[in-house]
Amino acid sequence: MRLCLLDIMEKVANRRQLVLWVMIELSLFLSACSGEVPARKLLKETGSNTRVRLQISNHHVVIDNGLVKVTIQNPTGHLVGVKYKGVENVLENRNANHNRGYWDIVWDEDAYDKLETKHVEVITQTDDLVELSFTKKWNSRNHDKTLPLNIQKRFIVRRGIPGLYMYGIFEREEDFPEAQMYQIRIAFKLKEGRFQFMAVSDTIQRIMPRSEDREKRRSLTLDFKEAVLLTNPSNPSLKGDVDDKYQYSTENHENKLHGWISDDDAVGFWIITPSNEFRTGGPHKQDLTSHVGPTALSMFVSTHYTGTEIDTFYKQGEAWKKVFGPVLIYLNSASSKQDHRKILWNDAKRQLSEEIESWPYNFTRSEDFPHSEQRGQVNGQLLVQDRYMVKELMQAKSAFVGLAAPGDAGSWQTEGKGYQFWTQTDNIGHFSIKNVRPGEYNLYAWVHGFIGNYKLDLNITIQPGNKMELGTLIYDPPRNGPTLWEIGVPDRTAAEFFIPEPYPKFMNSITKDGSDKFRQYGLWERYSDIYREGDLVYTVGTSNYSRDWFFAHVPRNIGNSTNQATTWQIKYSLQKVNENGTYTLQLALAAASYAEVQVRFNNLDTDQPYFTTKRIGYDNAVPRHGIHGLYRLYSINVPGYRFRRGDNTIYLTQTRNRSSFEAVMYDYIRLEGPNSLFN
């Protein structure tokens, strides 16, 4: 190796530094062997062994560990400054104190509360760690002005970690008045002159516009206020791009790391979320990450991609308490600007791995955040039984299995108050859900390639330290007969269907590799261009769903700001028909927003449809580039006499047309024959 043992002993002061040194040296060695640019040149900030210091004054609280200097306003609990390396404050110090780093909640009828606190308490103060709690107890005399909620905003700075941990403990007591809490988050407004490069994933990384570029003199507002076309941006290379914060949304299970890079300083600012247990709506709930500002968000609760169907309403008499976080605000730097973006991103991913390995943290000092030994574990194996596919039981490969509040199958999608714990099965269906907080749960699952939701018909009580073995569980997905034909893949998204190229004037380099075409702006309008002469017609056996099934069933734009309902046709042939049997149309929806799907068989002119979903959905997934919202499944039983031997047609009419966004996305459609069809 490159350093002798004496050098190592001199440079490495503790075990953590030794591990990080070995990782850096190994990275250098492997990079040299592969000929790649070394994924290093991180400044040797791991060498800092400065103790954590705390200063409290009338107006500010300062925590300094030699790597970061964190300043919090006293007693409001707003994060007003983070000094790192040569950057005096990575937050935008031109903003008011309450608009730099802050918690906020959107509650009843769009009321807005930034959760200003009244007191500060030192929870822990040692050379290795400082934990503070900024608190406020709700006072019934002020119920008409402030959110009825007891607040604890906690900050932790540790020795040797270039960043700070943040978490909140929020409580409603039984006598608190009712309230709706639509959104809970932490927001960070970074220094705009420096942070201009945003990274959300390996593929979603780009130079971002400045906030001034969204002003009227530099942009044109598009179909909704969040989306603008950059006409005269401060960076000419961005001219013609669309800026729309929803293009950078991700699913909860993928939303673990995102942030910004200052190219001038080769400094990164990252939000690291090692667990999703405190987020709502399950692993596929989508939410915002970062957007123009530069703004970085840690989202905990929202109605994005679900609408108000997610439960965020708290009744009077309903006691509630929940811990959100901790999340880590992590800063890093590179010693060279040569490939510094890759270096900083890879180091942030390394830190994420370390945080995940350390979860649940053992350094927090709240009794409301149980450590590992105070949690439980659930193990088992999930198999699938579908006698119309194969007679044998099938392994549920890569299925999502989770614990959430007791409810109906699939209710975890709209569960907005409790904790959820999810994992994926291995290749033979085994799962292990670890570090589960004590409480009452149901076990839920869904399996890629199969419709419907699984729920174990058993309440699960997690006790501290216990390990529950559930053995082999069998999922019997909805099925009434053999498959006659199918369209799509049961994966709860519309991603496999035809996603058109965007309009050239709205083309945007959102992803590095051109993937995720659904993130482009304006795709919903392409339907009216592509199907000018008539609506979509899909012929089973001839058509290909990846080319011939549009990703969203939207109204037709006929000009003059007018839309009309659209009817899609599925044409297919039946060699024989059992008129006395019952057929089943399995209709799985990936998203719905103020929509209604009417189903007719072989006769479009009937006044009443055979089946209607009625008006459903608030997820707004089409304009928000979500490719899915809430999953819905309709098993529609149809008597055999409605079918014909030979050619048949199913008509799907999306009746709502007040706007282009009243639409559905299909996940999967299957026609099943009756059991006795071939007897």
From TrEMBL:
Pfam families the record matches: CBM-like (PF14683), fn3_3 (PF14686), Rhamnogal_lyase (PF06045)
Signal sequence, renumbered to the chain: 1-35
Catalytic activity: Endotype eliminative cleavage of L-alpha-rhamnopyranosyl-(1->4)-alpha-D-galactopyranosyluronic acid bonds of rhamnogalacturonan I domains in ramified hairy regions of pectin leaving L-rhamnopyranose at the reducing end and 4-deoxy-4,5-unsaturated D-galactopyranosyluronic acid at the non-reducing end
Record flagged with keyword Membrane: no
Predominant location: secreted
UniProt-listed Enzyme Commission number(s): 4.2.2.23
InterPro entries: Carb-bd-like_fold, Gal_mutarotase_sf_dom, Galactose-bd-like_sf, GH-type_carb-bd, Polysacch_Lyase_4, RG-lyase_II, RG-lyase_III, Rhamnogal_lyase
Annotated keywords: Lyase, Secreted, Signal
Domain Rhamnogalacturonan lyase, chain residue ranges per copy: 397-468, 483-671
Subcellular location: Secreted
PANTHER family: RHAMNOGALACTURONAN ENDOLYASE, RHAMNOGALACTURONATE LYASE FAMILY PROTEIN
Family of the protein in this entry: Belongs to the polysaccharide lyase 4 family.
Name the record gives this protein: rhamnogalacturonan endolyase
Species the sequence originates in: Hibiscus sabdariffa
